[in-house]
C-alpha cells in the first residue's frame, strides 16, 4: 500500500481538532507535539505538522497527498486543490470591522477608505464584486490595531467570538466569507484506495457526531405512532420487555431531528427516553 502524507497545522486553532479527528479514525501516532513528522503505526500514513499557510501549496505540489486547513487559507493562497470533505470544526467568518464610533452603514461607504487585512486576495475580490475602490493594506498579524494606530479606517479579519474586536473598540460590519476546516487533496488523490479508506473513516466519525442512539419504552398500543416519528438507519429496533404490553424501541436519529421531535414522542406515549452518543457509523 502507498504511504500517504497528510499535512495539518502544527499549532493554532485547528491543530487540536485535526489531531482529534485522526485519532477518532483509529489512527495511532505519537510525538505530534514535539515533532514535524509523525508516523501512524496502524495505517500507511505520515502526518506533517506545518504552518497553515503552507498546507495548500504542499498539497498542490504533491509533497503531501492530503491536508486539513481552513477554507479561507485555501482561497487566499489560490492553490489548485480538491475539496474532499468539510470537517465541521474551525468554523469562523471573515468580516470587515469598523471602529465603534464609525458612521459607516453600508459597503459603498468604504469607497476611498483604507482597510487593513491579512487576507488581501479575498478582500480585493470582495471589494471588486461590490464595486468599491478602497485601499487594501496588508498586515501580518494584529490587524485589529490598525484603526487605533491610524493605519486604516477598517479591518478585514477572521472573527470567531468577536471578543478581540470588542476589546479593540471595533464592531463587525460586513461578512466577506464563511470558513471551516476541510480535508483537501491534489486533483485525483480521491481515487487512491488508501485515500478512499481514510475518507470512509473520517465520514463515519463525522456522521456519528451528528447522530444519537435513542432508547425508549412505549406501550404496544402506541408503538406505531412512535415508530413513525423515529425512523432508524433502516428502521427502529423493537425489543420485547418483561411487561408484555410494553416494548423498548432502539433508534439512530440526527440530533437536530431528535430535539424537534422530543415533545411529539412524549405526546405519543414514549417514556424513559435515553439519548447516547455514537462513536462511529459505518455506511
Automatic annotation (TrEMBL):
Return the GO cellular component terms, semicolon-separated.
cytoplasm
- The protein's required cofactors: Mg(2+)
Q: Which UniProt keywords apply?
A: Amino-acid biosynthesis, ATP-binding, Cytoplasm, Glycosyltransferase, Histidine biosynthesis, Magnesium, Metal-binding, Nucleotide-binding, Transferase
Catalytic activities: 1-(5-phospho-beta-D-ribosyl)-ATP + diphosphate = 5-phospho-alpha-D-ribose 1-diphosphate + ATP
GO MF annotations in UniProt: ATP binding; ATP phosphoribosyltransferase activity; magnesium ion binding
* Histidine biosynthesis HisG C-terminal domain boundaries: 208-280
Regulation (activators, inhibitors): Feedback inhibited by histidine.
Gene Ontology BP annotations: L-histidine biosynthetic process
Q: Where does the protein principally reside?
A: cytoplasm
Q: What does this protein do?
A: Catalyzes the condensation of ATP and 5-phosphoribose 1-diphosphate to form N'-(5'-phosphoribosyl)-ATP (PR-ATP). Has a crucial role in the pathway because the rate of histidine biosynthesis seems to be controlled primarily by regulation of HisG enzymatic activity.
Report what the protein is called: ATP phosphoribosyltransferase
Amino acid at each position: 500500500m502507498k504511504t500517504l502524507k497528510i499535512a495539518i497545522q502544527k499549532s493554532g486553532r485547528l491543530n487540536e481538532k485535526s489531531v482529534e479527528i485522526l485519532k477518532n479514525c483509529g489512527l495511532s501516532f505519537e510525538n505530534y507535539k514535539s515533532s514535524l513528522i509523525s508516523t501512524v503505526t496502524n495505517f500507511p500514513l505520515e502526518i506533517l505538522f506545518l504552518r497553515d499557510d503552507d498546507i495548500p501549496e504542499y498539497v498542490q505540489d504533491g509533497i503531501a497527498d492530503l491536508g486539513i486547513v481552513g477554507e479561507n487559507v485555501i482561497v487566499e493562497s489560490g492553490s489548485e486543490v480538491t475539496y474532499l470533505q468539510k470537517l465541521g470544526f474551525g468554523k469562523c467568518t471573515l468580516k470587515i470591522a469598523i471602529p465603534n464610533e464609525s458612521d459607516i452603514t453600508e459597503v459603498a461607504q468604504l469607497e476611498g477608505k483604507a482597510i487593513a487585512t491579512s487576507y488581501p486576495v479575498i478582500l480585493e475580490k470582495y471589494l471588486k464584486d461590490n464595486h468599491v475602490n478602497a485601499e487594501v493594506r496588508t498586515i501580518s498579524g494584529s490587524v485589529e490595531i490598525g484603526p487605533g494606530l491610524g493605519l486604516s479606517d477598517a479591518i478585514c479579519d477572521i472573527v470567531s467570538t468577536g471578543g478581540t474586536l470588542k476589546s479593540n473598540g471595533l464592531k463587525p460590519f460586513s461578512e466577506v466569507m464563511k470558513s471551516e476546516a476541510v480535508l483537501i487533496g491534489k486533483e485525483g488523490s480521491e481515487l487512491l484506495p488508501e485515500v478512499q479508506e481514510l475518507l470512509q473513516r473520517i465520514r463515519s466519525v463525522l456522521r456519528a457526531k451528528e447522530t444519537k442512539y435513542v432508547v425508549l419504552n412505549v406501550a404496544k398500543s402506541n408503538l406505531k405512532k412512535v415508530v413513525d416519528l423515529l425512523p432508524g438507519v433502516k428502521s427502529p429496533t423493537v425489543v420485547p420487555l418483561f411487561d408484555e404490553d410494553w416494548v423498548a424501541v432502539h433508534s439512530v436519529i440526527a440530533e437536530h431531528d431528535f430535539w424537534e421531535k422530543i415533545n411529539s414522542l412524549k405526546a405519543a406515549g414514549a417514556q424513559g427516553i435515553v439519548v447516547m452518543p455514537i462513536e462511529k457509523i459505518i455506511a
